[in-house]
C-alpha cells in the first residue's frame, strides 16, 4: 500500500533520483511528503465510502467509527512527520536561494546604472550606490550563512509560529532601504574632495531632510515589536489560538493563519511597498540626502500601520461552548443523555486557524467529567464531517458517573473552552 511505503521511508538507494522518501535528502523529503499526503487522501476517501473496514468492527457503528478515527490519526501523524521533514529541508536550502536573489539584485542595479550612464556619464554617486549594494549584499549573505539552518536572511522575519511575519518583513525592508541610503552618503562623502560638497552631504543627513522616512522607520519598527508582544500576551491569556506551521510561505505576508486573505495584512504590505518604491526612486534622483518622503505619503503609511495593529488586536478569540445536546439519528426516540450516547457540542472556535489538518484535528479532546475523550475523526469525501469549528460529536464514556457533569473542549492549540454542565442519567 502507498501508506505503508510512506511509513517505511523507502530504502532503495536508486530512489535518490527523485523518488526517495527519506527525511535527510531535500528532494526525498519533498517527495516523501507528497506521497504521504496522497496516501492519506486515498485512505480517507476510502473510509468515507465505507471501504477498507475489517469485518470485526463493521457490524458496530461506534466501533467502526473509533477504528477509522484511530487509523486516520496514525496516518495523519505520518503525514505531519513528513511535512516537518520537508519544512526543515526547505529551510536548509533557503539560505542559498536568498543569497542568489540578493546578488542578482546587485547585478540588476549594475546593469541599470550602466544603461542610464550612457550619455550622462559615470558619476561618483553611481559608484557609491554600487558599493553600498555590495556591502548590503555581503552582510545579508553572511547573515544567511550563519542562520542557514533557520532560513538564511529570512530568519529574522520568521515568527514563533514558523510563518513569515508581515510586520517584521515590512520593518526589515525599511531598515535595509535606510541603511543603503546612509551607505550611499558615506561613499559619496569619502570620495568628495571639495569641502562644500562634503558639507552638502552632511546636511543631507539632517532630520529636516529625512523627517518623513525617519518617522515611518520608527513607526514600522515599533509596530513589529508591539505586534510580537500583543500576540504573545493574547496567546498566554488564551484569547488567541496559534498553531505552528510546518514551514514559512510567501503567502503568509498577505494571509491569516488559515491561508485566507487578510485585509489588514494586504493593505499594510501594499501601502508600504508603494512608499518604499517612492523612497527608492527619490534616493536615485537625489543621492546626496536621505529620501525626503512627503508628509502626505508618510501619514498614509502611519494610517496603514494603525489599521494593521488594530487588526492584530481584533483577530482571534477564545473558543466557547454554547450548548450540549444528545445526538439523535433518524428513527431514534427522544431521551435524556446516558452513558454511551453521542452528544453534540455546539459553539464556536473549536478549530483554530491553521489547524484544519487531520493531525491537528486528532489532537482535540473533550473533557466529560473526569474523563478525557478524543474527538473521533469522521471522514467524508474531500474532508471531515467531525470535528468542525462549530460542532463536535463525541460519545459519553462509560466511566462517567450519572449526575451533573461538566463538559469542556481543549482545542489543538491547547486552549480550553468554558465549562458547560449537563445531566447524565443511568
Automatic annotation (TrEMBL):
Task: Give the stretches traversing the membrane.
Answer: 100-122, 128-148, 169-191, 211-231
Q: Which UniProt keywords apply?
A: Membrane, Transmembrane, Transmembrane helix
Taxonomically, which superkingdom? Bacteria
Q: What is this protein called?
A: Integral membrane protein
Q: Does the keyword Membrane apply?
A: yes
Q: Which InterPro entries match?
A: Ig-like_fold
Q: Which organism is it from?
A: Streptomyces althioticus subsp. attaecolombicae
Signal peptide range equals none
The answer to whether keyword Coiled coil applies is no
